[in-house]
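Q: Hi! First time doing this. I have a protein sequence and I read that you can turn it into a structure. Is that right? Here it is:
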Amino acid sequence: MTDSYADPAALVSTDWAADHTTDPSVVIVEVNTDLESAYRLGHVPRALGWGLHADLEDQVRRDVPGVRQMQELLSRSGIRKSSTVVLYGDGNNRSATWGFWVLKYYRHPDVRIMNGGRAKWLLEGKPLSKVSRVVSPVDYPISAPDKSLRAMKDYVVESHRRPGVKLLDTRTIEEYTGDMTSAPGTPQPDIYRKGRIPGAVHVPWDDGSAEDGTFKPAADLAALYAGQGLEQSDEIIPYCRLGVRASYSWFVLKYLLGFERVKNYDGSWTEWGNSAGVPIETGTGPRG
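A: Yes, that's right. Below is the predicted 3D structure, encoded as C-alpha cells:
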C-alpha cells in the first residue's frame, strides 16, 4: 500500500489477499452484521465469517467480548499469536475496523484491513466461494486488554472539557444535531436523549472513504481532520451510537495518520444519551 500512510502495513490490497488465501500463516475473516445476507452467499475463498454482534460483542452485557469469549473465538478460528489476521467487511469496512479494534484491544500482534473490503472485491470481479473454511482449533493464550485504546464513560466525563482532548462525533449530521438517534433510513432506537457530547467536533466516519470503499489518500484524510481543528498533539476520542463507526475513524487517525493518542468510546451515544447527570448539546453548533 501507499507509503504516505503512517502505518502502511495495517492495510493489504485485494490482490494481496487473493494471493494469500492458501497461506497457512494468514487467516482472512469477513466481519459482517448479518452473515446470512453476505458471507454465506459468497465470500473471499477460505475466509472465515464472524458476526459483528454475535462474535465481537458480549452476549449478556453491552460490552466488548470478555476474555473467555475472545479466547474461544480465536481458538476455534485456528488463529495463533503468530497468525496474520486480515479483516474485511461490509459498509465500507466499518465492521472490519471494529474487529481490528477488538483484536488490538486484546493485543493480537498482526492485524490488517483489506482495503476496500467486500465492496471492492466484488467491484473487481474477484471469485467468491460458498464453502466455509474448516479449521482445527488451537490454543490461543489471550492477553490482558490494552485499556489505553478504550475510553469509558467516566473517563469521558472527566476529560471532555480538558485542554488537548477532542471529542469526535463520527455520526451523521442528523444525529449530531439531535434530530435523530440513528442514521437516516435505519431503525431509530429509543435513546432517552438526542444530541451530542458538549464540545464534540463533527467529522462523519464515511467522509474518510473513497467511492470504491477504500480509504482516501493520507493527504485528503489529514486535511479532513485538520479542517475541524484536530492536531497531532491532541488526545482524540471518537464516538458514534455503538462504537462501530467510531472504530473506523479511530483506525484512520491512529494507523493511517499516526495520531498517537486515540481512544474509542464504544459506549458512545447509546450510553451517554441514556445516562443521568451528563450534559448534552443540540443544534448545529460552532462546527456542525
